[in-house]
Amino acid sequence: MDSTKAGLADTAASPAEDDARRPMSEARLARDAEAVGGGLPETEVMEPGTSSIPEAELDRITQDIIAALKTVYDPEIPVDIYELGLIYRVDIEDDRAIRVDMTLTAPGCPVAGEMPGWVENAVGTVEGVGQVSVNMVFDPPWDPSRMSDEARVALDMF
Asked: Comparing C-alpha atoms, which of 1, 155, 10 is closest to residue 83?
């Protein structure tokens, strides 16, 4: 499959890779993006030129998807789902279809049936994206270690 993988996190990460599974602050994102040659840290390394999407456009779409994800909140938690670490992976395909793997803080979350739609709608507003699909995953289960420092500060969990 010829696609560009712009993974936010890898669901199969080992405990030693825990830091890489958590959402990133904008500064960390920029540093890590530079380290991998642009875009989000990739869970699958793609050779340069394997995507039909120009690198600058891919970077813009990636940043805009993150911004869109940051507009989605669990109504019971005053932190967006990206900083909470609920987004495990985002794939941007060559046809600009977007696949999002996400989880919930708990499988019994009262908005479990609605949140994937909120994510789909938010990401769907990004200019230049095609079809958006959201996959709910529960392996590995979410835990507070997935939260960014920004989320920890907002929730007074330091």
From this structure: 155
